[in-house]
From TrEMBL, chains A, B:
Residues 4-191 form the DSBA-like thioredoxin domain. It is an enzyme of class 5 (isomerase). CDD domains: DsbA_HCCA_Iso. PANTHER family: GLUTATHIONE S-TRANSFERASE KAPPA, GLUTATHIONE S-TRANSFERASE KAPPA 1. The active site is at 13 (nucleophile). Pfam families: DSBA (PF01323). Keywords: Isomerase. It comes from the Bacteria. Belongs to the GST superfamily. NadH family. It comes from Halopseudomonas oceani. This is 2-hydroxychromene-2-carboxylate isomerase.
Amino acid sequence: MSKTIEFYFDVGSPASYLAWSQLPAIAERTGASLVYKPMLLGGVFMATGNSSPATVPAKGAYSRIDMQRYANRYGVTLNQNPFFPINTLQLMRAVTAYQDTPKFEPLLTAIFNAMWISELNMGEPAVIGKVLVEAGFDPEEVMAKASDPAVKEQLKRATEEAIGRGIFGAPTCFVDGEMFFGQDRLDWIEAAARS
Amino acid sequence: MSKTIEFYFDVGSPASYLAWSQLPAIAERTGASLVYKPMLLGGVFMATGNSSPATVPAKGAYSRIDMQRYANRYGVTLNQNPFFPINTLQLMRAVTAYQDTPKFEPLLTAIFNAMWISELNMGEPAVIGKVLVEAGFDPEEVMAKASDPAVKEQLKRATEEAIGRGIFGAPTCFVDGEMFFGQDRLDWIEAAARS
């Protein structure tokens, strides 16, 4: 019986970007299904009392080196976004609006790449608009969907669900109820998805 | 040319215990020299603004599961010490006092095992005394050495040196200037020690 990998993420998290870059291949290798679970990391931090490693300068500095090592191991580009941390509320609402649609993956790809390869200020509506147009989206349509009260409520509930499951940071994956925090647990996730 | 693994640790850190259980074998496999660097984790936390994962309840709960997974992978016993967190000032002074002596490794082994296998309250002088006797030490002699002003100063300087090198938590290893934080970076440490 094939397993399910639930992937809780926020596009403002470089570790989420790294995990996102590898999880589809892990799902393919293991035959597991990959379920994307957008959540608002700021909400998770607020509810749990956790904070970004970047709030401790020495930890933030090391964390950048550490993530770069993993990016090199994975063979993906990771650039340090100079506008980090970026408020991702609008972006995560947009991502939520397109969940379970064929446009979800192109949208997520455009946002993650803009954030962690092109180092754009994705907290700025004009910048977001440009990225969306280049990815073949109509920015007005995306932003209208993102402002839908049902979508706002959906992201809020998803974030509350994440907190209820014991999540305190991003990325976090569940494989059949087993929780794995961090992009540095992909080997454990792959083993759990395979077993 | 053989490399050096510098191992910064505090006996009050379960992740330090896990790294300590594996590093001698890594040094042997890679031909690297292992240099023990006792430091006071409480001092590191205070200076850097960092704190134990246990201060965020959801993170502490996950961290216990995560470390147990690694303990199982390594084939070592790790028990959750009910007295955690324990003030390790006296213990780390004692460990510092025996650095570069033949009694260093037996002392460290006795303390780490008392803390993370036997789950003893190693903040209590009477408990420490019993553990020392069982390990073949004279507790009065150990405590006299630990109270030597030169030893106190040595631990203080070692902790300041650690902070100066960018350390924010334990365990942290350096392999030829490259820093690796966490017992979950042993594969990276082994690769760096071998290269």
